[in-house]
Design goal:
Strand order of the largest sheet: 1-3-2-4-6-5
Number of strands: 6
Strand content: 5-15%
Order of helices and strands: HHEHHHHHHHHHHHHHHHHHHEHEHEHEE
Largest sheet: 6 strands, mixed
Length: 520
């Protein structure tokens, strides 16, 4: 009865905690005012019909609706084969985009909104929290039987209150989904280690590996680190048959993932991202690797641990493992698994530092919850070893990491909010009745919403300023002026436009990749 009471209390606490965290994340999401170009690619690749990338024909007038249609599923909802085909032309696997298309197909009113992507990420965040609850409970349980206690809620709470978690939710890309699979992979490995390799558990492991691979190729790097730690731990215990079966299941999952999306081989080995990663690794210098690793390590440290990560690792390891002669038959299981997870996270960050095109937080979001639960377990198990009761030890761990969280909230801002970007769209909407001419059609994706606001848009190459006057004449009317998007900030283009159109003034409205003018 006492265990049932604790389980019920834990589940109620989890529901309350999750509701509070989701409300907090929704509040942060409400502040999102603009989009990264990759977020437009998310919507476009998921929803655009037979047009993976925005590519409008130059030399003719088109409706701004052509740009908004790129982002929405209106008229072609639930076309999942189209999403799969779009991803063949991209550099990422299709699973996340299939989910985005499903969400956009169900919620088509309004046709484009940030809440479709943020809402989907909140769903993944909820499953991440559930995975953290089960993982923490598994590590805190002494026997094979899983015991849910309120202490298992703490790692999820500490992770959910961080700037890194909020950044992963408001960034409308596949990284919140990848983070979810990372947590569930760690849970699957912990269950296999404690409970044994039953067929159904191995099938669950394979399912997570396949889903993670089809979400982001970098997941394979993390899976290699975590699964490698498990494999060598089995070998160290001379459990060769178990290690062999585990390896076979992992290779089976990899082969099945490749079979489900064979174009991944071209993405990884032939695409520009894959070639860039291999060239970066081939030309690697130790100084570059150390510098890049330091950037990502400091990013993880600042967004999740307030700059105290190294100190926390040292103190937590000392509490859990020193002195060894007091460890009895061996290191405590939870602390040992946590230490292995921390080493896997460090190895992942090191590899990503080398192969990633940019040294930014999005590529390492997946290790934030793993590092949090691992450090929590080191402190909790360390406290238990030195005579503290289980609850007191967990509260100690929570207090230490919560202090770090307070430092995070004071010193870190949530990324990917782009405050102020809505002013650009508002300026375009105010002038929507005027013709719009775009000089330089490269990288239009970043300005998709702005161009979608206009009734009429004419696209020209960057060096074709002479074509603006004929384009306006083709309208068969004499507008009071027009809006000009000029991509490369070339003043000679503006002078040519004024001279050939006979207009007198080019008043700059704003700069957002393009210089945007009201020419009148």
């Amino acid at each position: 009865m006492q265990k049932r009471g604790k389980t019920a209390l834990t589940l109620v606490g989890f529901a309350v905690m999750l509701a509070a965290l989701l409300a907090l994340m929704a509040g942060v999401g409400a502040k999102k005012d603009g989009f990264d170009i990759d977020e437009f690619f998310t919507y476009g690749l998921a929803n655009s019909y037979h047009q993976p990338f925005l590519n409008a024909e130059t030399g003719r007038w088109i409706s701004g609706k052509a740009f908004s249609d790129y982002l929405t599923a209106s008229g072609h909802a639930h076309e999942y084969l189209n999403v799969y085909e779009n991803q063949i032309a991209d550099v990422h696997p299709p699973l996340y985009y299939l989910f985005v298309h499903a969400a956009c197909s169900v919620f088509r009113d309004p046709p484009f909104t940030k809440w479709t992507g943020i809402g989907l990420n909140l769903f993944f965040f909820s499953l991440t929290q559930l995975g953290l609850l089960l993982l923490s409970a598994r590590l805190l349980s002494d026997g094979e039987r899983l015991t849910l206690t309120p202490a298992a809620l703490l790692p999820g709470l500490l992770y959910g209150l961080s700037a890194g978690a909020a950044s992963s939710v408001v960034f409308i890309r596949m990284y919140a989904m990848m983070t979810m699979w990372a947590v569930w992979l760690a849970l699957a490995l912990a269950v296999l280690w404690v409970g044994g390799q039953t067929v159904w558990r191995m099938r669950a492991l394979a399912a997570v590996l396949i889903a993670g691979f089809l979400t982001q190729y970098y997941f394979v790097v993390l899976a290699c680190m975590l699964c490698g730690a498990y494999f060598f731990a089995r070998l160290a215990r001379r459990e060769f048959a178990a290690a062999g079966r585990f390896a076979l299941w992992c290779f089976f999952a990899l082969a099945l993932a490749v079979g489900l999306f064979p174009w991944c081989l071209n993405h990884i080995f032939g695409g520009y991202r894959g070639k860039g990663a291999m060239e970066s690794a081939a030309a690697l210098r130790l100084s570059d690797m150390c510098r890049w690793f330091k950037i990502l390590w400091q990013t993880l440290d600042a967004q999740q641990f307030g700059g105290l990560l190294l100190a926390l690792v040292c103190v937590g390891a000392a509490l859990a493992f020193w002195p060894l002669k007091k460890a009895g038959q061996g290191l405590l299981r939870g602390a040992g698994l946590s230490a292995a997870a921390l080493l896997a996270c460090v190895a992942y960050v090191l590899v990503i530092a080398v192969v990633s095109p940019y040294k930014v937080d999005r590529y390492i979001f997946c290790v934030y919850p793993l590092a949090t639960v691992a450090l929590f377990m080191l402190f909790a198990r360390g406290g238990c070893r030195f005579g503290s009761r289980r609850g007191s030890a967990c509260l100690l761990a929570c207090a230490v990491l919560a202090a770090c969280g307070a430092r995070v909230n004071r010193g870190q801002q949530v990324h990917y909010l782009y405050p102020g970007d809505s002013a650009y769209l508002a300026a375009c909407e105010e002038n929507a009745a005027l013709p719009c001419v775009v000089l330089g059609t490269n990288d239009m994706t970043q300005n998709t919403l702005e161009l979608a606001a206009f009734d009429r848009v004419f696209l020209l190459d960057a060096d074709d300023a002479q074509g603006v006057a004929p384009a306006l004449e083709a309208l068969g009317e004499e507008p009071d002026g027009f809006i000009l998007f000029e991509r490369y900030h070339d003043e000679a283009n503006i002078e040519t436009v004024l001279r050939t159109t006979g207009l007198e003034c080019a008043e700059r409205l704003f700069e957002h990749q393009y210089q945007v003018y009201w020419v009148h």
